[in-house]
Amino acid sequence: xxxxxxxxxxxxxxxxxxxxxxxxxxxxxxxxxxxxxxxxxxxxxxxxxxxxxxxxxxxxxxxxxxxxxxxxxxxxxxxxxxxxxxxxxxxxxxxxxxxxxxxxxxxxxxxxxxxxxxxxxxxxxxxxxxxxxxxxxxxxxxxxxxxxxxxxxxxxxxxxxxxxxxxxxxxxxxxxxxxxxxxxx
Length: 185
Ligand code: SF4
Ligand code: SF4
Fold this sequence. Notes:
The chain is mainly alpha-helical.
């Protein structure tokens, strides 16, 4: 175990928390910026991926958990493929999203974080997506009337069911209850 690993192990900082939850060696990031340079969504982010890592190393909890970046990340894996330290950045982003929801810190992208909660909530409940359930999401974020036209067309063609089918079961519940893996709180 090198000095950096020892420091992480004994630390109670944001860095040690994210390292433990994601399983990724964030302490190894040396700010080469290859992740940010290749990210297709870097133009829309308020904090670039490499900067997220630096803020985590410095323990800037609120700044990271309230950032737009963690919600804008499209999980495309480009950054992870480019990282010379083999850090799975995607896993770190997932961890930060989960921590952001649990912390109650105001999200930098309210609609996306709400969509995330609705989507996972529906999966947890029914085991699959259920389109009418998203009407509730649209009611909260606006745009319900905008979706009514095409929803009706899909319904009339038999593409949308009013009653959800349930495909959940024990295995799905186990996935949701496993710490740090898709918890919906
Ligand atoms: S996984 Fe996220 S952070 Fe990484 S390159 Fe794709 S959008 Fe950017
Ligand atoms: S590519 Fe890897 S080492 Fe380089 S800044 Fe991004 S996370 Fe850090």
